[in-house]
Write a structure and sequence with these properties.
- A two-stranded antiparallel sheet has the order 1-2.
- About 70% of the residues lie in helices and about 5% in strands.
- The protein is mainly alpha-helical.
- The chain folds into two domains: about 1-55, Multidrug-efflux Transporter Regulator, Chain: A, Domain 2 (Orthogonal Bundle); about 75-120.
């Protein structure tokens, strides 16, 4: 299917599909006229990519794990999964630390605003 069809089926913009290709996340086929040709397996991959991106994972990490699943062999798949899960856990831990800092900053601002309102009365 052409890029416009793939966009409609996947819910991902044509621009995003081109970006995924530029990043090496997908490799669509090509028609004889050079237009991109998206098969169902590429659409399925796009849906996985979109889900991973929406969860906040960086493209670098997504590229690494997808490469491990499509290198043509089943050897090391468990290792790829274990490494990927470790990377996901590390990413989640970094997010949790950032959230904690932001929560502390929000709490400090809440205190400031409460105090400021008291002095305005």
């Amino acid at each position: 299917m052409k890029i416009s069809e793939a966009s409609g089926v996947s819910g991902v913009s044509a621009r995003s599909l081109r970006h995924y290709e530029d990043e090496g996340l997908i490799v669509p086929g090509r028609f004889s006229n050079g237009f991109r040709d998206y098969c169902q397996s590429t659409i399925d991959r796009v849906l996985v990519i979109r889900s991973l991106l929406e969860s906040g994972l960086p493209v670098r990490l997504i590229r690494e794990v997808l490469a491990g699943f499509t290198d043509g062999s089943d050897v090391g798949t468990d290792v790829v999964c274990a490494e990927f899960l470790h990377e996901v856990q590390s990413h989640r831990d970094r997010l949790a630390a950032r959230i904690a800092v932001l929560s502390d900053q929000k709490a400090a601002l809440d205190v400031y605003l409460r105090e400021a309102r008291r002095t305005d009365l």
